[in-house]
Amino acid sequence: MKISVVGTGYVGLVTGTCFAETGNNVTCIDIDANKVNKLSNGQITIYEPGLEKLFERNLKEDRLHFTTNLEEGVKDAEVIFLALPTPPGEDGSADLSYILNVAEHLGKILTSYKVIVDKSTVPVGTAEKVQEVIGRYCNCAFDVVSNPEFLREGVAVDDFMKPDRVVIGTRSERARKVMGELFAPFVRQGNPILFMDEKSAELTKYAANSFLATKISFMNEIAILCEKLGADVDMVRRGVGSDDRIGKRFLFPGIGYGGSCFPKDVQALVKSSEEVAYDFKILNAVMDVNERQKLFLIPKINAWFNNDLKGKHFAMWGLAFKPNTDDIREAPALYMIDALVAAGATVTVFDPEAMTNVERLLGSKVKYAQHQYECLENADALIIATEWSVFRTPDFNKIKGALKQPAIFDGRNLFDVSRMQELGFHYESVGRTAVQ
Ligand SMILES: NC(=O)c1ccc[n+]([C@@H]2O[C@H](COP(=O)([O-])OP(=O)(O)OC[C@H]3O[C@@H](n4cnc5c(N)ncnc54)[C@H](O)[C@@H]3O)[C@@H](O)[C@H]2O)c1
Ligand SMILES: O=c1ccn([C@@H]2O[C@H](COP(=O)(O)OP(=O)(O)O[C@H]3O[C@H](CO)[C@@H](O)[C@H](O)[C@H]3O)[C@@H](O)[C@H]2O)c(=O)[nH]1
Predict the structure, then answer these.
(1) Residue ranges making up the domain that contains 228
(2) Which atom of ligand 2 is nearest to the CA of 259?
(3) Which residues bind substrate (predicted)?
(4) Which of 109, 206, 296, 335 is the most exposed place for a label (fewest CB within 10 A)?
């Protein structure tokens, strides 16, 4: 099939590459000429495990193309995916301007039947709006379908190639047939394609993200209670997660959820609820808990340094909002850096993949280390913000030797508490007993 993907970011590039990998001819369109240039020349623009190999193969086999020209890019396509940003607007609701501007442009240039697919995360009623905007300018037949994306960064290729389910919102038989055919290679193992109406598909995406965020905030509150009552959140997590009805995943406490999705999508669902005069109480609490959780380690650090961080120097391991990505959008590490610097401390940071993005954002606000151990030099303590595998089994002697005093504040519960005690560290984590 001939496919176009408008917006070549994390979702668009993965979507385009994976559709090319299943034999389709794909054109990706982006307004960022620099990005399109790099991609056309074989240079991948995001760090996503497994993507580069597929990208290179499909580029070489001429199934993957890049352009900045929308008209040229969609001319021959049967299906046009919109993988455009839907950032929070000023009031927290999803900003649909990227989607609606492209819809208007499409309306002016379409000359034959196309299936236009909202892959971006968009509020209920957006497919209807896109339909209306395109229809205002276009005389030919077209269908607008909602096909929310559930991939996670860091495992995006696997998630796209083997999705738990594919959700397709359309009431058009013609579009349903096209979409069913396109997604058939991805559901061979019996994972379902769930056809539904557009609004239900749109709400499914927000409900899924909000539920997962709720699980995390819930466990973060249990972690606080564990510390107050002397229980161990690792044990409680295992005990709770072994119940099939609850499940083991997304129960890891830490320094809050970040990224480009959970924070904005929970907020957008609360806003959508307000628009229909509904106060979504649980989600308001989920957001409050997460706001607090991002700075969970700060009071502990303050207490350890007698409430005086002026002149103190910290090493920070991990900046990306989660491991295996270079994405730093809404990363809890950034909130911690702000708090430490505001209290008069200095910070040297290290992340295996996110350094370029952080340097672009923070400039000289922090110092940058080339290596995880170099980062520790002259630091009063080590703070861990992201659970990259390389941080899981470090050389503790090296850490001890480099830090001014052996203190670790771990926002992702990487190490065994009793082992840290044996090694003589002051070690504080989330929902477990601190050791001196
Ligand atoms: N990142 C994820 O893990 C993820 C997963 C599922 C769903 N989503 C949703 O998918 C959507 C896209 O997210 P993303 O993370 O890929 O965003 P992104 O910012 O990485 O990519 C968006 C791309 O769109 C381009 N763009 C902006 N305006 C354009 C225009 N007029 N024409 C062509 N290109 C244009 C930008 O240059 C950018 O490359 C959002 O709605 C997001 O909520 C994201
Ligand atoms: O038990 C857990 C699991 C995750 N997190 C945090 O939650 C955030 C989000 O993690 P994750 O969901 O793995 O990453 P995303 O790439 O943001 O993916 C989410 O957001 C995407 C965009 O909508 C959806 O497509 C995915 O299904 C959904 O998992 C990160 O900060 C994690 O550190 C925890 O604190 N505890």
Answers:
(1) 205-293
(2) 17
(3) 150-153, 205, 250-254, 258, 322
(4) 109
Rounded CA gap, 339 and 357, in Å? Answer: 20
**With contact defined as beta carbons under 8 Å apart, do 160 and 150 qualify?**
no
For residue 13, give the ligand 1 atom closest to its CA.
Answer: 16
Per-residue buried b or exposed e for 256-294, using 16+ beta carbons within 10 Å of the residue's own CB: bbbbbbbbbbbbbbbbbbeeeeeebeebeebbebbeebb
Q: What distance in Å separates the CA atoms of residue 58 and residue 109, rounded to the nearest whole number? A: 28
How much distance in Å is there from the Cα of 377 to the middle of ligand 2?
32
pLDDT tens digits for range 323-367:
999 999 999 999 999 999 999 999 999 999 999 999 999 999 999
Q: Which of 196, 222, 251 is the last residue of a domain?
A: 196
User: Is 226 in the active site?
Assistant: no
Question: ipTM value of the model?
Answer: 0.98
pLDDT in tens, 292-331: 999 999 999 999 999 999 999 999 999 999 999 999 999 9
Q: Kindly tell me the burial class for residue 237, based on how many C-beta atoms sit within 10 Å of its own C-beta (0-12, 13-18, 19 or more).
A: buried
121 and 50 belong to one structural domain: yes
How many domains does the chain divide into? 3
Residue of 18, 28, 226, 261 marked catalytic? 261
Asked if 51 and 128 sit in the same domain, the reply is yes
Question: Is 228 inside any structural domain?
Answer: yes
Of the residues 143, 176, 196, the one at which a domain ends: 196
Ligand 2 center from residue 236 Cα (angstroms): 21
CA distances from 274 to 86, 195, 268, 285 (A): 19, 28, 10, 15
